[in-house]
Design brief:
By secondary structure, this protein is α+β, with helices and mostly antiparallel strands. Helix content is 24%, strand content 30%.
């Protein structure tokens, strides 16, 4: 499997005229990392320290890197390389792969393509993966979209993830990198684990992004399942995007995350409403608590009182804000649909569209209506200023 992965990777590297574009990704960014183990998995790396070449690190070699005062100590099996302010591991072949395992605190090992930079920042060891954007995209697609979908779905997800990345290159610029590897930016657990369909989809769509009619990057939102109706961005984030309007989606019906249920006592529900300034009169018929949400609504209303479905969802950690209420004896049943905020691409719907023969362009333009798919080199920098960080 690994040989097949390398063959596909090489074929795309050497048959595309589009140049490799590197971005910086802060890895293990949420950790207060004090020490890591760096290992060369494939190829070899040039170790540089404070701007000076130190040694070539071969496949199979391990280095222990830790904070020591205001500096970083780097130790090999038989050699102490000393204390430095900055370390840089530069890949000497394009297929080079390294692993990184935090040991303080102890966290599961991850694998990465291309280069690694280390320094002390804000009292912790900062680890930055400098990586080709499309290798990064394949890792994001795997983390966000799973391993069991078809190629056209992976292509649609790759284009959206690339659009998001290029639109947010300045998100962590004050920390000396572009994007983090958590949900604050886009989830990424390192390099693609070997799913050749995802890797191929990322390179097949290389350079493609989604823009609106003003050639500005779209807000490339997506979620697990919309429950049959996507949500307008205006109702969730108070932003009015013409391409992020509610869409009737028949494709996600009966999928894994299409329906959910929760239950609580009627008394718990009454107490919750009272805490949110509802006026519940004595003798109020319990049937008035019933509410059916056929299409997405913003407010649960009882008399003159109201509460957003989004707040209810957040307070009770529901899967979505798309739910109905039914009184059953002394209980309240919540009949829910979908999983996530509901804005933009519905992943389970998109997967079904791909299975039915729709291509990635049709999938994207179904969920984001009136948008264009184009090469990012055609996107004007003055309308998308983060692109300046790529040196366009």
């Amino acid at each position: 499997m690994y040989k097949l992965f390398l063959i596909i990777l090489f074929s795309y590297i050497f048959n595309f005229t589009f140049y490799a574009q590197l971005i910086k990704v802060g890895v293990y960014n949420d950790l207060n990392t004090k020490a890591v183990v760096f290992s060369v998995v494939n190829g070899k790396y040039l170790l540089s320290a404070d701007g000076r070449a130190i040694e070539t690190i071969q496949q199979g070699q391990n280095l222990y890197i830790s904070l020591e005062g205001d500096s970083i100590r780097c130790i090999g099996i038989q050699k102490n390389y000393g204390l430095y302010k900055y370390l840089h591991f530069n890949a000497m072949i394009d297929s080079a792969v390294f692993s990184l395992r935090p040991v303080d605190p102890q966290v599961q090992i991850r694998f990465y393509d291309d280069n690694l930079e280390l320094s002390k920042q804000l009292g912790k060891l900062q680890t930055i993966n400098q990586v080709d954007i499309d290798k990064y995209i394949s890792g994001v697609v795997e983390a966000e979209g799973g391993n069991r979908a078809s190629s056209e779905y992976y292509k649609s997800q790759a284009v959206l993830c690339r659009t998001y990345a290029l639109n947010h290159l300045d998100r962590h610029i004050e920390e000396n990198f572009n994007l983090c590897d958590g949900t604050h930016c886009q989830a990424c657990n390192g390099r693609n684990s070997g799913n050749t369909s995802i890797l191929k989809a990322s390179f097949d769509t290389r350079g493609l992004v989604v823009v609106d009619t003003d050639t500005t990057f779209i807000t490339a939102a997506f979620h697990s399942d919309c429950g049959g109706v996507t949500e307008s961005a205006r109702n969730v984030w108070l932003i009015n995007k013409p391409y992020l309007k509610s869409v009737q989606d028949p494709y996600c019906q009966n999928q894994k995350c299409f329906k959910w249920e929760r239950k609580m006592t009627l008394e718990q529900w009454k107490q919750y409403l009272l805490k949110n300034d509802f006026h519940l009169k004595d003798g109020l018929p319990v049937s008035l608590f019933n509410f059916t949400q056929y299409n997405r609504r913003q407010y649960y209303k009882l008399g003159k009182d109201s509460l957003t479905f989004r707040k209810i969802r957040n307070d009770f950690n529901f899967r979505s804000a798309f739910f109905s209420l039914e009184v059953k004896g002394d209980s309240i049943l919540f009949h829910g649909r979908g999983y996530g905020h509901g804005v933009g691409l519905c992943q389970e719907g998109a997967m079904q569209m791909a299975k039915l023969g729709y291509n990635f362009r049709e999938i994207i333009q179904f969920y984001y209506q009136g948008v264009n798919i184009t090469e990012f080199n055609n996107v004007p920098v003055n309308k998308n200023p983060p692109l300046l960080l790529l040196g366009k």
